[in-house]
Amino acid sequence: MSHSIHSQSERQTVYSSDYSTKGVDILPNLVDAPYTHHLIDGMQEPGPSEVARPLYTSHFMDRTETMRESRSMYLKVVGVGVVAMIIVMFSVFSIYWGALWKIPERSLDGWVVNFDDSTVGNAVVQAMLSSTASSGIVSWTNKSASEFPGGVDDVADAVLDQRTWVAVVVHPNTTRLLQSAVLSMNSSYDGSTALTAYAVEARNENAFRILIRPVVEGTLNAVSLGIAISFVKQVGSSYPQIIANISTAAPQILAQPVGYTLNNLRPFDVPVASAMTYVGLIYVLVLAFFIVNFSAAAREMSGLETSLTTRSLIFLRLASSFVSYFMLAFFYSLLCLAFQVDFSRTLGRSGFVVFWMLNYVGMLAVGLSLEAMLTLLTARFVGFFVIFWIISNVSVCFMPLEVLPGIFRYGYAFPFYNVSGAVRTIIFGTKNQLGLQFGILLAWMGVSLITLPLFQWLFRRGAVAKAKAVTHRAGEKDS
Predict the structure, then answer these.
(1) Are residues 309 and 394 in the same domain?
(2) Where is the DUF3533 domain (predicted)?
(3) Share of the chain above pLDDT 70, in %
(4) Which segments of 242-381 are extended strands (E)?
């Protein structure tokens, strides 16, 4: 009888703060996947030094044996952590540094379309093609005007359709209009209508501002100046009797016989959109990581982590993620709306709902990956994956993948790249690839919906085996 009472009291001590191994017949229920092994490893009787050590009385440099052991362990753990971060710095940070290191590693595509097919047009085409070697940023290709039966509008549509990054058009009859202006001394002649460069800033504002616009303006300024010098010489030799009259009546003909206009078909005219296409994506991932941590803590504190069956635990984790991200995505979208972002430009009234669903699916794509990796790496090491996950995604959003080294082509299949592209379509009306972009994000969700249950099942099985082993050892000790 006394033995029975003694056993019952020992079993109750399993809930004490020292996680004593007494009463371990409850251990088979401790079958949590990512956390149980930490719990079981800690369920040991405190060593003599731990029992004897007074609380809050030691100094770090004390020479006692206990403090020497503690100090050594502390320095080892911190040292290993620093070494690990140095390794992460060189292995993971190098992804982002590498993306910016040699921009542009490759050239952007550019078209020259000659609808004039005469003196001015031929001169412009020759000058543009020869500039490719000097700039190395835009690789110009001469496109036949016959490929665009709709004329200049077809070229603009091709740029909007992202078949090229920039196109320079020599308008029809440019040479004839210039010659006519000389003979009639037309004071209303405007040389800037001779050439038009088409580009889409909203496709990638950084590429437009840093690469495309400077190259196009620099090249066309040089072309315009070269044509002006040759033209003045030609007019002076062919029409010496009227050149003085032209300089008085229509000086712009001599100053700029051929100019250009840069037509930005889709300007990036909503500055706050930068938060949604680049930096804000990092914040979204961080929010998802917080949800992962909050959910894990809630399961631990409530005891659900160890009391639920594997199937119920998997369902709980997935349901928590889907519901939490649904709400977060809604309020994140409201935040963007509060700063007067117009979501109706392209999709009308449904634009906001599509934006909300994009953020929802995007959060699930990155958040479920974190949820799965938490199971695999545990809370202690999942932070390393978070760093990799952020940097590998951000690296492919700042500049077009076309100018980055070939290794960064992985970005076409990564969440941030597709969310960024979809946001540009919704807000600015760039090429609509929403179906493809949503599909890629859903594919990431699908991968996580497979890996998360798999990882949870594997670790739960290992935790059960470990718990049984501890129970067996405790039983042998009691006997």
Answers:
(1) yes
(2) 83-449
(3) 89
(4) 260-264
Q: Which two tokens mark 160?
A: 């909007």
Domain co-membership, 211 together with 333: no
Do both 137 and 205 map to the same domain?
Answer: yes
Does residue 323 sit in the same domain as residue 463? yes
**End-of-domain residue from the set 235, 264, 293:** 264
> Domain for residue 349, yes or no?
yes
Mode of pairing for the β-strands spanning 195-199 and 166-170? antiparallel
Residue whose tokens read 């958040």: 367
Q: Where are the alpha helices (DSSP H) in 395-406?
A: none
If asked whether residues 331 and 414 sit together in one domain, one would say: yes
- pLDDT, tens digit, for every residue of 321-372? 999 999 999 999 999 999 999 999 999 999 999 999 999 999 999 999 999 9
Cβ neighbors of 40 (< 8 A, separation 6 or more) are 27, 30, 463, 466, 467, 470
**Single-letter code of the amino acid located at 429:** G
Domain check: are 248 and 282 in the same one?
Answer: no
Q: Identify the band that residue 27 occupies on the pLDDT scale cut at 50, 70 and 90.
A: very low
Q: What is the dihedral of CA 184, 189, 193, 194, to 10 degrees?
A: 40
d(CA 364, CA 382): 17
Largest CA-CA distance found in the chain, in angstroms, rounded: 131
Tell me the two tokens of residue 38.
């930490």
Q: How far apart are CA 261 and CA 157, in angstroms?
A: 17
How many CB atoms are closer than 10 A to CB 293? Answer: 14
| pTM score, whole prediction | 0.83
Q: How far apart are CA 72 and CA 159, in angstroms?
A: 64
Whether residues 162 and 209 share a domain: the answer is: yes
Burial of 326 from C-beta contacts in 10 A (0-12 / 13-18 / 19+):
middle
Decide: 68 and 60 in contact? Cβ < 8 Å: no
Q: What's the domain range around 183?
A: 101-264
Q: Is residue 343 part of a domain?
A: yes
- Is 70 exceeded by the pLDDT of residue 148? yes
The token pair that represents 136 in the structure block = 């190395």
> Domain check: are 281 and 428 in the same one?
yes
Q: How many domains does the chain have?
A: 2
164 within a domain of the structure (yes/no)? yes
User: Which one of 226, 243, 264 terminates a domain?
Assistant: 264
| Eight-class DSSP state of 303 | T
Angle made by CA atoms 109, 115, 120, in degrees to the nearest 5: 95
pLDDT, one tens digit per residue, over 432-463 is 999 999 999 999 999 999 999 999 999 998 88
